[in-house]
Each structure stands twice: as C-alpha cells, then as structure tokens.
C-alpha cells in the first residue's frame, strides 16, 4: 500500500477529527514533488476534492470547508494531515488521500460519520 489513511470515525456535529495519510514506501526525495490531497465520497455521490496542498505548500480548499478544515504536509515524515473542525453531517463520507505528481496514487479510504 503506497498511501495509508487513518483517523476517521464517528463524531457529533460541531466536533473535530484529524485525518492522516502516510506514505512509508515512497522515496523521501520524490515525495515533496507531489501535490497531496484529500477527497471525499458520500453514498451515491461522485468523489470530490476537499483540499490539496502543492509542493510549495499552497493550499486549496473546497468552498464548503473553507475556514473549518486545514491541510498540512510534513515532507520529512511523508505525511499529509487534514484537520477538520466544526464538522457538519454533510461532511460525512469516505475520505481518500491522493498523491499527484509523476504518478497518481490513491490511498484506501477512511470513513467519517458526523451525526446531527
């Protein structure tokens, strides 16, 4: 497995979760070149971009999560993190991490459920 996602779970509306995605098998010297992102997919819906961060650490967010979610990367640890605050039921879904660069790599999903 190239990307290992973790941190999902069940949380009440207004709560927080922190997702992490590690890339233990990727070479550190190339990891930094990748744009790292988090996508989510709700039941019956298409997968959508939540946030991503480029090699120069420019972050981009979906309008629905601006001000609530923060994406960050630690190249030395080959990890991208998504801090999710003020969660809403509509944030529920399976969250996938992605590395996009010389290749496009997907991690397995981690389920986030926000109860109202």
Q: What's the shape? A: globular
Assembly type of the chains comes to single chain
Distance between termini?
34 Å
H/E element string? EEEHEEEEEEEE
Give the averaged pLDDT, no decimals: 95
- Main sheet: strands, sense, barrel: 7 strands, mixed
Share of residues in strands? over 45%
**Uncertain ranges:** none
Helix-strand blueprint:
Elements: E1 4-6, E2 9-12, E3 17-22, H1 28-31, E4 35-41, E5 48-53, E6 59-61, E7 69-74, E8 79-84, E9 93-100, E10 104-106, E11 110-115
Parallel strand pairs: 2-11
Antiparallel strand pairs: 1-3, 3-8, 4-5, 4-9, 5-6, 7-8, 9-10, 9-11
Question: How would you summarize what this structure contains?
Answer:
By secondary structure, this protein is mostly beta strands. It has one helix at 28-31; strands spanning 4-6, 9-12, 17-22, 35-41, 48-53, 59-61, 69-74, 79-84, 93-100, 104-106, 110-115. The longest helix is centred in the first third of the chain and has 4 residues, at 28-31.
Structure notes:
The model has no long low-confidence stretch (mean pLDDT 95). By secondary structure, this protein is mainly beta. 34% of the residues are buried. It contains one helix and eleven strands. Strand 4 and strand 5 form a beta hairpin.
Keywords:
7-stranded mixed beta sheet, 4-stranded antiparallel beta sheet, 1 helix, 11 strands, mainly beta
């Amino acid at each position: 497995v190239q990307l290992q996602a973790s941190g999902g779970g069940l949380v009440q509306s207004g709560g927080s979760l922190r997702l992490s995605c590690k890339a233990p098998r990727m070479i550190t010297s190339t990891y930094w070149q990748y744009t790292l992102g988090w996508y989510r997919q709700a039941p019956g819906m298409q997968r959508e971009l939540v946030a991503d961060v480029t090699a120069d650490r420019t972050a981009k967010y979906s309008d629905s999560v601006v001000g609530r979610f923060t994406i960050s990367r630690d190249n030395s640890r080959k990890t991208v993190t998504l801090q999710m605050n003020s969660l809403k039921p509509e944030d529920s879904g399976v969250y996938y991490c992605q590395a996009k660069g010389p290749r496009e790599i997907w991690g397995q999903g981690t389920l986030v459920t926000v109860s109202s």
